[in-house]
Amino acid sequence: MTEIQDRLATGKGKFTPRYPELGTGAVSYEDCISPEFFTAEREAVFERSWLYVGRVERLPRPGTFFTRELPGKLASIVVTKGLDGEVHAFHNVCAHRGNKVVWQEHPQEESAGSCRQFACKYHGWRYGLDGCVTHVTNEAEFFDLDKDSLGMPSVACETFAGFVFVNLAADPVPLRTFLGDRIGELEGYPFDKMTQRYGFSTRIHGNWKLAVDSVCEWYHPPYVHGRFIDPDVSKAEKMVPPVDAYHYDVFRPHMLTSVPGPPPLPPRDGGAGEPRRDQRWVYKLFRAGLFGPDDVPDIGELPAFLNKGEIGFWGNDQFWLFPNLSVQIWARNYYITYTYWPESVDSHIYEIDMYFVPPANARDRLAQELVVDSTIEFAMQDVNTIEATHSALATRAQREFHLSDQELLIRQFHTVIRDTVAAHQQGQNP
Questions:
Q1: pLDDT of residue 133
Q2: pLDDT tens, 384-423?
Q3: With helix as H, strand as E and coil as C, how does the chain read?
Q4: Tag placement on the chain: N or C end, fewer CB within 10 Å?
Q5: Which residues are within 8 A (CB) of 2 and not within 5 positions of it... i.e. 6 or more apart?
């Protein structure tokens, strides 16, 4: 064990035995490659769970709106702030002939803006910010038309800690009931101070759950990300924290992993030395890297719910909100959301949004952009592995797979997905 690994080791032992209901045996990945399971999962999970669609900062005043095209043709929705100041969501479909109501130049692209009412581009029907029909073109030409009963179908919509969620079910449980007490603690974090957003989205040719798996463990970095750590694998292995340096928590259906990280650099000493073709030199030059800016912004005292594992050199807490959202809160006072939207059994849309305190100057902005660039680079290295994993799994040449202790959350995640599908098929609540 190297000096840094020795400093990070805790001797806590294994986590998985604390959750005997999850077992320790080999697992199947049929839930990632079966078209039949994908269909059942879509109905049981994505048509019935609370899904994150955006931040309230996108709706700064009444009349502002944005649209979301939920991948896999799950739904097209409009999210708006009404005159009552509340956030509402509607299916983006006209009551006349079913045209999509809100779009700009291209119907399949998302849009945002502000208005007093929505107007359908097909025949001019108009809708208020409450989704109700306000105008029918040539209304007298219709037969027994009850205009007051018509509108864009409403979608259950609630906000939590500034995050906007929708649920496509007819009568879902309240959002806070679904999130539970442990996730509920997130309301104590100052998300509203971090309004500088950098967004990224891509399509991955692999099952969405494999992408979730890839960031639920820290077993892979010396191999997948070796170029950033050290090109010599044997050296990279000695630079990552030992397996017991992490913290895991399961509060079904959600979960958490906490990871260690490096301390910030000392105050600027005049430069980064002679230029080198070395990522660490770039980090030193811009005083930022994968774990965030070294000049950490002041956001006040951090809430007590963070770093429950009491990691000595804490890097971040990654809260997993079932089914497809990760909120990653970093020790250096910024946060990232990761969202995974299945399109088909072998394709999904991967969204990364990074939020910082607005930069005070060009130096701060460059530091943030380096953090963003490093994060995206790491993510894309994971993507290659996800696509390689899916293509190999699809052959079914191997049917059983073995998970280590630090892959506990992977075991938990797939168990909850399978249990949710089974409960729905049996007409039960999961």
A1: 97
A2: 899 999 999 999 999 999 999 999 999 999 999 999 999 9
A3: CCHHHHHHCCCCCCCHHHCHHHCCCCECCHHHHCHHHHHHHHHHHHCCCCEEEEEHHHCCCCCEEEEEEECCCCEEEEEEECCCCCEEEEECCCCCCCCCCCCCCCCCCCCEEECCCEECCCCCCEECCCCEEEECCCHHHCCCCCHHHCECCEEEEEEECCEEEEECCCCCCCHHHHHHHHHHHHHHCCHHHCCEEEEEEEEECCCHHHHHHHCCCCCCHHHHCHHHHCCCHHHHHHHCCCHHHCEEEEECCEEEEEEECCCCCCCCCCCCCCCCCCHHHHHHHHCEECCEECCCCCCCCCCCCCCCCCCCCEEEEEEEECCCEEEEEECCCEEEEEEEEEEECCEEEEEEEEEECCCCCHHHHHHHHHHHHHHHHHHHHHHHHHHHHHHHHCCCCCCCECCCHHHHHHHHHHHHHHHHHHHHHCCCCC
A4: N
A5: 238, 239
For 273-291, the pLDDT digits (tens) are: 777 777 777 888 888 988 9
User: How crowded is residue 342: how many other Cβ atoms within 10 Å of its Cβ?
Assistant: 24
Q: How many CB atoms lie within 10 A of CB 355?
A: 19
| Residues 246, 326: Cα–Cα separation, whole Å | 17
Amino acid at 31: D
- Whether a cis peptide bond, with omega within 30° of 0, leads into 60 is no
Give the Å distances, CA to CA, from 80 to 46, 65, 99, 155, 235.
22, 4, 19, 12, 52
